[in-house]
TrEMBL record:
Pfam families: Fungal_trans_2 (PF11951). This is Acriflavine sensitivity control protein acr-2. It is found in: Nucleus. InterPro entries: Fun_TF (IPR021858). The keyword Manganese does not apply. GO terms for cellular component: nucleus.
C-alpha cells in the first residue's frame, strides 16, 4: 500500500472517531480505535524491521488515533500527542489507567486462586503507587518544547488534575476488587483537590477541553453538593464550547450515578457531613452496571 493511502486511511479513522464522539458519544468510537491500532502496530513493526523513520504527518495521525487505545508498541506515539491532543493526557498515566481497567476485566473473565488474587492486589497497589509518583511539574516542563504555546502553569494544573483522577479511579478499582483494602488517600478530598486544579481553566483557555475527563471522574467520586454543582457547570460550559454527544452522555451518566447513590444510601448527609456508607459507595461497579464504564477507560 502506498504511503499516501495509509495516511488517508488513518486520517479517515480519526475523522470517524471524531464524528462518533460528536454525534452520540457512545462507545462505538472504540471500534475505530481498535481498527487503527491494528494498522498502526503493523506500521510500527514494519518501520522497526526496515529501519525507516515515520514522517511527522504519520506520527501525528497515529498518535491522535491512539490516545484512546494503548499497546506496548505505541507509547512514544502517545507522547507525540501530549502537546497537541485536546485531552492533554500525560502519556505516562495512560498505561497505568488501562492496566487498572484490565484488572477489572480479568476479574470478570476468570476465577483465580487466592495466590493469584493476592498477586493482582499487589499489582493494583503498585499501579496506584506509580500514579502517585507521577510529577506533573516535571511533565509540564518536559512538554514545553512540544507544546504549541507557553503554557507551563496550565499544563501543570491539568496534569495534576489527571493524576488525581487516575488515583481516584485506581483506588475505586482496588476497593471494588478488595473492599477491605486500606487506601493511602481520602478519595473525597482527592476529588475535591482535582476540582481545585481544574478550576484554573476557564472557557477561554486553550486547555479548557482537557478538563473533561478528570472533571467526570471527580464528579463520580464527589459527594459534596457544591462541588457537584461545579462539575455540572463545567460540563455545561464544555457543551457550549463543543456540543459533543460525549459531553451530553457524561453529564447524563453523572446524574444517573448521583441519583442512584442518593436512592441506595440508607443514611443521609447532614450539615455537609457524609456518612461512611455513602463514602464507600463504589461508582466503578455502578458505571459498569448501566453500561457506561467506557466513559472512564
Amino acid at each position: 500500500m502506498a504511503p499516501a493511502d495509509v495516511d488517508a486511511i488513518l486520517a479517515s479513522v480519526l475523522l470517524l472517531i471524531g464524528f462518533e464522539l460528536i454525534d452520540t458519544g457512545r462507545g462505538s468510537w472504540i471500534f475505530h480505535i481498535n481498527g487503527a491500532r491494528t494498522i498502526i502496530e503493523k506500521l510500527v513493526a514494519s518501520a522497526v524491521a526496515t529501519e525507516t523513520t515515520l514522517s511527522p504527518l504519520r506520527r501525528w495521525l497515529m498518535s491522535n488515533c491512539l490516545v484512546g487505545g494503548l499497546s506496548t508498541t505505541t507509547m512514544s506515539l502517545l507522547q507525540d500527542a501530549e502537546g497537541n491532543h485536546c485531552s492533554s493526557f500525560p502519556a505516562a498515566l495512560l498505561p497505568i489507567m488501562q492496566a487498572g481497567a484490565q484488572l477489572l476485566k480479568m476479574n470478570d473473565d476468570s476465577t483465580s486462586p487466592d495466590t493469584l488474587a493476592d498477586s493482582r492486589r499487589y499489582g493494583a497497589l503498585h499501579l496506584l503507587h506509580a500514579a502517585k509518583s507521577f510529577d506533573p511539574a516535571v511533565w509540564a516542563i518536559n512538554l514545553q518544547p512540544r507544546s504549541p504555546a507557553d503554557d507551563l502553569f496550565h499544563r501543570t494544573e491539568i496534569a495534576s488534575a489527571h493524576k488525581g483522577a487516575v488515583c481516584v479511579y485506581l483506588s475505586r478499582i482496588i476497593l471494588a476488587l478488595w473492599p477491605s483494602t486500606v487506601l493511602p488517600d481520602d478519595l473525597e478530598a482527592l476529588a475535591a483537590e482535582t476540582i481545585i486544579h481544574l478550576s484554573c481553566m476557564q472557557p477561554g483557555d486553550a486547555l479548557f477541553t482537557a478538563t473533561a475527563w478528570p472533571a467526570f471522574v471527580a464528579g463520580l467520586e464527589i459527594a459534596d453538593l457544591t462541588n457537584r454543582a461545579w462539575v455540572v457547570r463545567r460540563f455545561q460550559d464544555l457543551w457550549e464550547l463543543e456540543p459533543w454527544g460525549l459531553t451530553r452522555e457524561a453529564l447524563g451518566a453523572l446524574t444517573t450515578i448521583w441519583d442512584g447513590r442518593k436512592n441506595e444510601d440508607a443514611t443521609k448527609s447532614r450539615n455537609n457531613e457524609v456518612y461512611e456508607q455513602q463514602r464507600n459507595w463504589n461508582w466503578v461497579e455502578k458505571l459498569k452496571s448501566i453500561g457506561t464504564d467506557w466513559l472512564v477507560a
